Amino acid sequence: MNYRKEFIVKSAGAVKLDNYDPDFTDKQETKKSALRKIGNLKTQINELQFNLYAEQKRSLLICLQGLDAAGKDGVIRHVIGLLNPQGCRVVSFKQPSAEELAHDFLWRIELQTPKRGEMVVFNRSQYEDVLIVRVHNLVPKKVWSNRYKQINAFERLLADNGTHILKFFLHISKEEQLTRFEQRLDDPGRRWKISEADYSERGFWDDYKKAYEDVLSNCSTVDAPWFVIPSNHKWFRDLVITKIIIETLQKLHIEIPKPTVNIEDIRKKYHEAAEEKDKKE
What we know:
Helix content is 49%, strand content 11%. By secondary structure, it is of the alpha/beta class. The chain has one domain (3-280): P-loop containing nucleotide triphosphate hydrolases (Rossmann fold, 3-Layer(aba) Sandwich), CATH 3.40.50. It starts with a helix and ends with a helix.
């Protein structure tokens, strides 16, 4: 299965999340086979990332969005963790600071976009400003509704300057979210992730669902596509995202830069130095 084609949101038409099954797994996949494939893909994704870093011409921006407990941290740990941290950076966007609020909503986002050769992962992103601010009426509708086109223009600018963008919506069911909350309560090592707000926000489930549907409908473009990732099964979520990243990097046909020195001269000097060392010994 070509996961990029399977889960991409087409740039035309309204998106209804009821049409996407968060429980979906490829009928040929099992947890065991998926974990084995992810392990086998580690060398491939590492090589592609190294080539991107070496080429120093383009960059990759990955945006992770999803409701609480959808698995953003899990993707960072199990998928992004496969990458070399020298060429990869993770940025988490929390509640804006006073300084950030004194600027336009994209100011803090632009500061964290990847430089050439770099991969950057946004844990939450520019889309918080058409999600939480909408659901909780933090700004008027006339303000947040205008941000779709502003975000599209911003992403198009990034793409025109060599940044390739992948946006993943981690799609879980309301029942699965509650199960994960309960698992956190039962696990002393993860209780710190639970807050009363997690449960109170469940009361806005339908509002968030509608907000995400509008995001996916308005902001999945050729330059910056959205992917709806079935995420009730963590192992399938991780496999799909890993393969989409690989498929995307492969399509770039990245070329390793040619040496800037004469290799034969360097090799000759190495041999001369080695011979000199042998004589002294």
